[in-house]
Specification:
Layout: E1 2-8, E2 13-19, E3 24-32, E4 39-44, E5 50-53, H1 59-70, E6 86-91, E7 102-103, H2 106-114, H3 123-136, E8 142-146, H4 156-159, H5 165-171, H6 180-193, E9 202-208, E10 212-218, E11 221-225, H7 247-256, H8 260-269, H9 272-277, H10 283-291, H11 295-319, E12 324-328, H12 329-334, H13 336-343, E13 365-366, E14 375-378, H14 383-394
Parallel strand pairs: 1-6, 6-8, 9-12, 12-14
Antiparallel strand pairs: 1-2, 2-3, 3-4, 4-5, 7-8, 9-10, 10-11, 13-14
The protein binds adenosine-5'-diphosphate.
Length: about 400
């Protein structure tokens, strides 16, 4: 079956058409500047990419153009829409309502809408994507796959904050965690690569990209994760501060004469390794700057590595041990220096990295030495494939 995977943002739409039997990508692409002017980059497998500037007043227009490109005589990969068997939608927030992926019905859409408050930038856009697809492909079954669902297995002591309990009850303030599709996919694949079942393992997944989070996966279930009520919490990221004393918000607001919203914008968009280094959020730029002797780039990377190592220690403690650590996403998959620096904190776990194997980029590899007590792996994530698999499994 061909599954169209849709990841709809407020002004963008990413898509992949995946043949679920062979798990190959037939085509993928990105619509940008929806509602502004509109640009589509479409890449059919084995053919040249095409970029089309075309007015996209709304998401329905974007989906319509995507469907046109998928069936186009020159750039298409299928002969008609009947060859799309299902659509899998990435949904950012499922609140406490969704602990698993689900087939989309009117009731499910209302329930997703009820989570809008928790992800005001993302969920409304995700819903628009669903509505657009339903308008254009009313007969095609659709599945919602939530970023938060995998973490719904966390115990109360992991997800509750130390604030009055009624705020959890009334306002649903708690840790939700994100990147769940990736953490689930990578932890399962890690077990496979080690020749074990997920139920037999304690795994720490380090999803280190521009957005970054860590997850403790015990017996196949998320038991803790570093992002919280929002994706701002936890690790120091590309532009996000990660965990910070909340009192800083008020204090910085006073100093800058800025309101809460403005301070939150600083913590989300102007902080992280970009803010500390003053150079870039991109680790490639920072590595280059370090090699040229830039001290602040070095401080930024040291902060990042230190925080990752802290979380690994913390999650080893909450799981009472760890069997494997998996690195994934842009930095985790492609940056041997970061992996080595993080693992240099972990000799107390009797972890040893094979420096040659650690040079791997973007491929599956066990990078620990054969006598390392804890296995360390690089496992490329593939959220679109995970969504396609979930979609097929549910239908
Ligand atoms: P997100 O999906 O959260 O936007 P990514 O997972 O794409 O982020 O990660 C982006 C980061 O990954 C950047 O800091 C970049 O330096 C790093 N990265 C991505 N690809 C490569 C690569 N091929 N080599 C080195 N670093 C890479």
């Amino acid at each position: 079956m061909n599954v169209l995977v849709i990841n709809c943002g407020s002004s963008s739409l990413k898509y992949q058409l995946i043949d679920s039997d062979s798990e190959s990508v037939l085509a993928k692409g990105l619509c940008e500047r929806i509602g502004i002017d509109g640009r589509l980059k479409h890449t059919p497998s084995g053919k040249e990419s095409v970029v089309i500037d075309s007015t996209m007043p709304d998401h329905t227009a974007a989906v319509s153009l995507v469907l046109k490109m998928l069936t186009d005589s020159a750039h298409g990969v299928i002969s008609g829409l009947s060859e799309i068997g299902a659509v899998g939608h990435r949904i950012v927030h499922g609140g406490e309502k969704f602990a698993a992926s689900t087939v989309i019905t009117d009731e499910v859409m209302s329930a997703i809408e009820e989570c809008n408050d928790l992800a005001p930038l993302h969920n409304p856009a995700n819903l628009i994507g669903i509505r657009s697809c339903r308008t254009l492909m009313p007969e095609v079954p659709m599945v919602a796959v939530f970023d938060t669902a995998f973490h719904q297995t966390m115990p109360k002591e992991a997800y509750l904050y130390g604030i009055p309990y009624e705020y959890y009850e009334q306002y649903k303030i708690r840790k939700y965690g994100f990147h769940g599709t990736s953490h689930s996919f990578v932890s399962k694949r890690t077990a496979e690569l080690l020749g074990k079942k997920p139920e037999e393992l304690k795994i720490i997944v380090c999803h280190l990209g521009n957005g970054a989070s860590i997850c403790a996966v015990k017996n196949g279930r998320s038991v803790d994760t570093s992002m919280g009520f929002t994706p701002l919490d936890g690790l120091i990221m590309g532009t996000r501060s990660g965990t910070i004393d909340p009192a800083v918000v008020e204090y910085l607001g006073q100093k800058l004469n800025a309101n809460t919203h403005e301070v939150m914008n600083i913590l989300n968009k102007k902080s992280g390794v970009a803010g500390v280094s003053g150079i870039s959020s991109d680790f490639r730029d920072l590595d280059k700057a370090v090699s040229e002797g830039n001290e602040r780039a070095e401080i930024a990377l040291n902060l990042f590595n230190y925080r990752v190592a802290q979380y690994i220690g913390s999650y080893t403690a909450v799981m009472n041990g760890v069997d494997a650590i998996a690195f994934t996403a842009g930095v985790g998959e492609n940056n041997p220096k970061s992996r080595a620096a993080i693992c240099s904190y972990l000799s107390y776990l009797e972890i040893a990295i094979d420096d040659v194997k650690n040079q791997v980029r973007g491929e599956e590899e066990v990078i620990s030495t054969s006598d390392s007590k804890v296995k360390v792996l690089v496992v490329p994530t593939n959220e679109e494939l995970a969504i396609a698999r979930e979609t097929v499994a549910l239908l």
